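Entry:
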Amino acid sequence: MTKLVLVSHNLCPYVQRAAISLLEKGVAFERRDVDLANKPDWFLEISPLGKTPVLTVAGEAIFESSAILEYLEDTQAAPLHPDDPVLRARHRGWIEVGSAVLNDIAGLYGAKDRDTFNAKTAALKAKFQRVEDALEDTLGDGPYFSGAAFSLVDAVYAPAFRYFDTFDRIGDFGVFTDLPKTKAWRKALAQRPSVIAAIDGGYPKRLHDFLIRRNSFISELIAEQSASV
Protein backbone atom coordinates (compact mmCIF):
# COMPACT_ATOMS: atom_id res chain seq x y z
CA MET A 1 0.00 0.00 0.00
CA THR A 2 1.31 3.46 -0.93
CA LYS A 3 2.18 5.47 2.16
CA LEU A 4 0.58 8.92 2.33
CA VAL A 5 1.91 11.54 4.73
CA LEU A 6 0.13 14.87 5.19
CA VAL A 7 2.69 17.49 6.23
CA SER A 8 0.71 20.03 8.17
CA HIS A 9 0.53 22.97 10.53
CA ASN A 10 -1.95 22.66 13.34
CA LEU A 11 -3.79 25.92 12.58
CA CYS A 12 -3.76 25.86 8.78
CA PRO A 13 -7.25 25.76 7.21
CA TYR A 14 -5.79 24.50 3.93
CA VAL A 15 -4.46 21.46 5.78
CA GLN A 16 -7.97 20.83 7.07
CA ARG A 17 -9.26 20.73 3.48
CA ALA A 18 -6.85 17.94 2.61
CA ALA A 19 -7.53 16.04 5.84
CA ILE A 20 -11.30 16.22 5.28
CA SER A 21 -10.91 14.85 1.76
CA LEU A 22 -8.68 12.00 2.95
CA LEU A 23 -11.09 11.14 5.75
CA GLU A 24 -14.13 11.26 3.46
CA LYS A 25 -12.41 8.87 1.06
CA GLY A 26 -11.36 6.54 3.84
CA VAL A 27 -7.69 6.82 2.89
CA ALA A 28 -5.14 5.87 5.54
CA PHE A 29 -2.57 8.61 6.10
CA GLU A 30 -0.13 9.94 8.65
CA ARG A 31 0.18 13.55 9.78
CA ARG A 32 3.48 15.26 10.34
CA ASP A 33 3.31 18.75 11.83
CA VAL A 34 5.91 21.41 11.17
CA ASP A 35 6.64 24.69 12.93
CA LEU A 36 6.19 27.36 10.26
CA ALA A 37 8.10 29.83 12.43
CA ASN A 38 11.12 27.53 12.32
CA LYS A 39 10.85 25.61 9.06
CA PRO A 40 13.13 22.58 8.86
CA ASP A 41 15.31 22.12 5.79
CA TRP A 42 13.54 18.92 4.74
CA PHE A 43 10.26 20.81 4.62
CA LEU A 44 11.65 23.65 2.50
CA GLU A 45 12.98 21.05 0.07
CA ILE A 46 9.48 19.70 -0.60
CA SER A 47 7.45 22.93 -0.28
CA PRO A 48 8.74 25.58 -2.72
CA LEU A 49 6.58 28.29 -1.11
CA GLY A 50 7.27 27.13 2.44
CA LYS A 51 3.57 26.53 3.09
CA THR A 52 1.41 23.66 4.27
CA PRO A 53 -0.12 21.33 3.35
CA VAL A 54 2.19 18.99 1.50
CA LEU A 55 1.16 15.42 0.70
CA THR A 56 3.97 12.96 0.20
CA VAL A 57 3.10 9.89 -1.86
CA ALA A 58 5.74 7.16 -1.78
CA GLY A 59 8.33 9.86 -1.20
CA GLU A 60 7.04 12.22 -3.91
CA ALA A 61 5.76 15.61 -2.71
CA ILE A 62 2.55 17.28 -3.85
CA PHE A 63 2.22 20.84 -2.58
CA GLU A 64 -0.67 23.35 -2.52
CA SER A 65 -4.07 22.26 -1.24
CA SER A 66 -5.85 22.58 -4.61
CA ALA A 67 -3.30 20.26 -6.24
CA ILE A 68 -3.64 17.79 -3.37
CA LEU A 69 -7.44 17.77 -3.62
CA GLU A 70 -7.33 17.18 -7.37
CA TYR A 71 -4.72 14.42 -6.97
CA LEU A 72 -6.96 12.64 -4.47
CA GLU A 73 -9.91 12.99 -6.86
CA ASP A 74 -7.82 11.46 -9.65
CA THR A 75 -6.46 8.54 -7.64
CA GLN A 76 -8.87 7.63 -4.85
CA ALA A 77 -12.37 6.21 -4.61
CA ALA A 78 -15.43 8.07 -3.29
CA PRO A 79 -15.23 11.16 -5.55
CA LEU A 80 -16.14 14.49 -4.00
CA HIS A 81 -16.50 16.32 -7.33
CA PRO A 82 -19.77 15.92 -9.28
CA ASP A 83 -19.74 13.94 -12.52
CA ASP A 84 -21.27 16.66 -14.68
CA PRO A 85 -18.47 18.79 -16.22
CA VAL A 86 -20.37 22.06 -15.95
CA LEU A 87 -21.33 21.47 -12.34
CA ARG A 88 -17.77 20.35 -11.57
CA ALA A 89 -16.39 23.57 -13.08
CA ARG A 90 -18.93 25.56 -11.08
CA HIS A 91 -17.79 23.83 -7.90
CA ARG A 92 -14.18 24.71 -8.69
CA GLY A 93 -15.26 28.34 -9.01
CA TRP A 94 -16.90 28.28 -5.59
CA ILE A 95 -13.76 26.70 -4.16
CA GLU A 96 -11.87 29.79 -5.36
CA VAL A 97 -14.44 31.96 -3.59
CA GLY A 98 -13.76 29.89 -0.48
CA SER A 99 -10.07 30.73 -0.74
CA ALA A 100 -10.96 34.42 -1.04
CA VAL A 101 -13.08 34.04 2.10
CA LEU A 102 -10.03 32.72 3.96
CA ASN A 103 -8.02 35.73 2.77
CA ASP A 104 -10.69 38.05 4.15
CA ILE A 105 -10.72 36.14 7.45
CA ALA A 106 -6.96 36.64 7.70
CA GLY A 107 -7.51 40.33 7.02
CA LEU A 108 -10.17 40.42 9.73
CA TYR A 109 -8.03 38.95 12.49
CA GLY A 110 -5.01 40.96 11.32
CA ALA A 111 -6.81 44.33 11.16
CA LYS A 112 -5.05 46.88 13.35
CA ASP A 113 -7.95 49.28 13.91
CA ARG A 114 -11.74 49.34 14.05
CA ASP A 115 -12.21 50.89 10.61
CA THR A 116 -10.12 48.21 8.91
CA PHE A 117 -11.82 45.53 10.98
CA ASN A 118 -15.25 46.81 9.93
CA ALA A 119 -14.19 46.92 6.29
CA LYS A 120 -13.01 43.30 6.43
CA THR A 121 -16.23 42.29 8.16
CA ALA A 122 -18.22 43.95 5.39
CA ALA A 123 -16.15 42.17 2.74
CA LEU A 124 -16.86 38.82 4.39
CA LYS A 125 -20.55 39.62 4.70
CA ALA A 126 -20.68 40.44 0.97
CA LYS A 127 -19.01 37.17 -0.01
CA PHE A 128 -21.29 35.13 2.20
CA GLN A 129 -24.28 36.94 0.69
CA ARG A 130 -23.14 35.56 -2.67
CA VAL A 131 -22.87 32.15 -1.04
CA GLU A 132 -26.40 32.55 0.32
CA ASP A 133 -27.66 33.33 -3.16
CA ALA A 134 -25.94 30.21 -4.52
CA LEU A 135 -27.46 28.10 -1.74
CA GLU A 136 -30.90 29.26 -2.82
CA ASP A 137 -30.34 27.13 -5.91
CA THR A 138 -28.48 24.18 -4.37
CA LEU A 139 -29.66 23.62 -0.79
CA GLY A 140 -32.97 22.05 -1.67
CA ASP A 141 -32.69 18.34 -0.96
CA GLY A 142 -30.00 18.12 1.69
CA PRO A 143 -27.77 20.01 4.11
CA TYR A 144 -24.69 20.51 1.91
CA PHE A 145 -23.69 22.83 -0.91
CA SER A 146 -25.20 20.61 -3.59
CA GLY A 147 -27.87 19.10 -1.39
CA ALA A 148 -27.51 15.56 -0.08
CA ALA A 149 -24.00 14.84 -1.38
CA PHE A 150 -20.96 16.11 0.51
CA SER A 151 -18.51 17.67 -1.98
CA LEU A 152 -15.13 19.39 -2.13
CA VAL A 153 -16.95 22.72 -1.81
CA ASP A 154 -18.10 21.58 1.62
CA ALA A 155 -14.56 20.44 2.49
CA VAL A 156 -13.27 23.91 1.57
CA TYR A 157 -15.82 26.00 3.45
CA ALA A 158 -15.87 23.93 6.66
CA PRO A 159 -12.47 25.25 7.87
CA ALA A 160 -13.55 28.82 7.10
CA PHE A 161 -16.73 28.42 9.13
CA ARG A 162 -14.69 26.91 11.96
CA TYR A 163 -12.98 30.26 12.60
CA PHE A 164 -16.34 31.67 13.61
CA ASP A 165 -16.72 29.14 16.40
CA THR A 166 -13.94 31.13 18.10
CA PHE A 167 -15.01 34.54 16.76
CA ASP A 168 -18.52 34.04 18.15
CA ARG A 169 -17.08 33.73 21.64
CA ILE A 170 -15.43 37.13 21.22
CA GLY A 171 -18.41 38.99 19.82
CA ASP A 172 -21.19 39.03 17.25
CA PHE A 173 -19.57 40.42 14.12
CA GLY A 174 -22.81 40.15 12.14
CA VAL A 175 -21.27 38.26 9.22
CA PHE A 176 -24.12 35.73 9.01
CA THR A 177 -26.99 38.04 9.96
CA ASP A 178 -29.97 37.45 7.64
CA LEU A 179 -28.21 34.53 5.94
CA PRO A 180 -30.32 31.58 7.14
CA LYS A 181 -29.19 29.07 4.51
CA THR A 182 -25.52 29.84 5.13
CA LYS A 183 -26.03 29.41 8.87
CA ALA A 184 -27.78 26.07 8.28
CA TRP A 185 -24.93 24.94 6.02
CA ARG A 186 -22.38 25.97 8.63
CA LYS A 187 -24.23 23.97 11.29
CA ALA A 188 -24.43 20.87 9.09
CA LEU A 189 -20.72 20.99 8.26
CA ALA A 190 -19.79 21.37 11.93
CA GLN A 191 -21.52 18.05 12.62
CA ARG A 192 -19.82 16.12 9.79
CA PRO A 193 -17.46 13.45 11.24
CA SER A 194 -14.65 14.24 8.78
CA VAL A 195 -14.83 17.95 9.65
CA ILE A 196 -14.69 17.18 13.36
CA ALA A 197 -11.76 14.79 12.92
CA ALA A 198 -9.74 17.22 10.77
CA ILE A 199 -8.49 18.98 13.92
CA ASP A 200 -7.53 17.85 17.40
CA GLY A 201 -9.00 18.92 20.71
CA GLY A 202 -6.37 21.61 21.25
CA TYR A 203 -7.31 23.60 18.16
CA PRO A 204 -9.73 26.11 19.78
CA LYS A 205 -7.20 27.16 22.43
CA ARG A 206 -4.39 27.39 19.88
CA LEU A 207 -6.51 29.62 17.67
CA HIS A 208 -7.55 31.78 20.63
CA ASP A 209 -3.91 32.18 21.72
CA PHE A 210 -2.89 32.93 18.13
CA LEU A 211 -5.47 35.74 17.95
CA ILE A 212 -4.18 37.23 21.20
CA ARG A 213 -0.64 37.31 19.81
CA ARG A 214 -1.71 39.15 16.65
CA ASN A 215 -1.64 42.53 18.45
CA SER A 216 -4.58 43.49 16.29
CA PHE A 217 -8.03 44.94 16.85
CA ILE A 218 -9.44 41.50 17.58
CA SER A 219 -6.68 41.05 20.18
CA GLU A 220 -7.98 44.20 21.85
CA LEU A 221 -11.52 42.81 21.84
CA ILE A 222 -10.26 39.64 23.55
CA ALA A 223 -8.39 41.71 26.16
CA GLU A 224 -11.48 43.81 26.85
CA GLN A 225 -13.56 40.67 27.18
CA SER A 226 -11.08 39.14 29.64
CA ALA A 227 -10.93 42.34 31.69
CA SER A 228 -14.71 42.40 32.07
CA VAL A 229 -14.92 38.86 33.44
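The chain has a mean pLDDT of 94.
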